[in-house]
# Entry
Amino acid sequence: MSKTYKPHPDTTQKAHISSLEQYKKIYNESISNPEEFWAKIAERIDWYQPWNKVREYDFVNGKIEWFSNGKLNASYNCLDRHVNNGYGDETAIIWEGNDPNQSRTFTYKELLKEVSQFANGLKDLGVKKGDRVCLYMQMIPELAIAVLACARIGAVHSVVFGAFSSDALRDRINDSACKILVTQDTGVRGIKQNIPMKANADQAVLHTPSIEYVIVVKRTGEPVHMDVERDIWWHESISNVDDKCKPEEMDSEDPLFILYTSGSTGKPKGVVHSSAGYMIYSSYTFLNVFQYDEDDIYWCTADVGWITGHSYIVYGPLLCGATTLMFEGVPTYPNVSRFWDIVDKYKVNQFYTAPTAIRALQAHGLEPLENNSLDSLKVIGSVGEPINEEAWHWYHDNVGKGKCPLVDTWWQTETGGIMISALAGITPNKPAHASLPLPGIIPVIVDAEGNELNGNNVQGNLCIKSPWPSIIRTTYGDHERCISTYFSNYKGMYFTGDGVKRDHDGYLRILGRVDDVINVSGHRMGTAEVENAINEHEDVIESAVVGYPHDIKGEGIYAYVIVSTELNDDEIKDQIINVVRKVIGPIAKPDKIQIVSGLPKTRSGKIMR
Ligand code: PRX
# Structure
């Protein structure tokens, strides 16, 4: 990599917390004077107009503002800022295809051009600031480009994970009345060669009155139906546009994106993130947790369809001028050493994945690791669910070779960025413990009555006192739901839905959800959501879904179902699974279904899970 660029201020050692003592000092400063602390961090990015108040909040009404009246643009800060600083020829994105011989790289200059073109393509279709654009794609570069293009023109992106069904896509489009849907012809993932993305999109848009156009990336070249009035190829949408696009000046509190996530009740909710606070927190945590340095190659294996991909594939790394790797495939294709082949191929320095992937690979033993050196790795990370001690040690010893710090990062879609985690190489590791809060974060352990449990050796529900910059701003179209879910359970605090233990050293260990949410392979699922899907089968009378310990997935889905049917048990179970696949997608299909004649109920008739 050439050394001719000016060192970027964000990626120099100066921007990092570099010792445990410094962490403690900075943490204390961030708590005693949060406004001064965050103002200093916010100065690292470029503003069209500075803010006039760092933060203002009222948890009772769920009203939170950071950097009030500041004006800035996320795409400008991810791209133009680095190009203007002489960093344009550095690699922004390395894309590794499902097939090992398919890859692409984008320098910051190239990415800026692609993003500007697509932004102009969207504008030509009438997309304006504040309009919602739905992105339903696999892990192809155009997904990151579309995210940044939306941010450039002030459109609010709503990425829907590419494995959701057409029904799930339809509901998410309708909830936020998206104007445009961006998808691809078909997708490839592992041995699956033709995932019917466009066909699913076609099904969905039969019932989405707000969608005006569907833009289709040609990924595989498989023939797909194109509606001449409604559908446009991506490459045609950018064929006659300027490759410069002036970024829209966004208010700090203008929404940057919506991302749907499951809750304990009802339908998934659209978590809304702001522009300034989200950018500042995701980039700050990226730098410090992973201790990213100039020239490092960073790889997060998540999907951009989830918050981890938003914050730590796209925004966090690009805001810091980092090189971020985006992988289209799966860890087991074409063989079970694929992750390790990629680490060696690109000399990856920071590797961030989910416990479920670790456990799945662990099951294949050490042989798949034997042909790779993994020498380049400096930091390994975990996210999405509690990492059990066995998986922690396997990952630490065999992937990190005992020399890489392992950052177990606890956070949520609603928090926008990492909240509790070791800082790599700085916070001493303790297996299965997320460890200590990031600067600015005040975790509080409360009992069922809301009493704070101070000191060490305590266990209870995890709340966060006082807001951080990237805290959820609202649930789209239903602010009351935001207040009742997060700010009403415990007065004056944000409630996470997780249980936690503070051990004798003051380290935090996340114990998992305390509400009706289960975590299947790091995917968050509402039990009520799965039950609603099961109940759509006409022979199902009632169902109850619970999580159960699963060796690979962390939690599996166990469904108790009452049916009235002529079918035998195997037939009805197959049909139920198909209904769930259709209503939500394959990630929600029950691992076990037990046909029962009754379900335990409370006196008021509520199912006791
Ligand atoms: O239960 C916690 C678990 O995942 C939930 C958040 O899910 P989601 O919004 O989909 O975001 C996942 C990626 C940030 C949390 O409430 N969780 C996440 N990270 C950890 C975790 N549980 C234990 N340890 C973690 N490191």
Summary: The first helix runs from residue 20 to 32. Residues 1-9 have pLDDT under 50 and may be disordered.
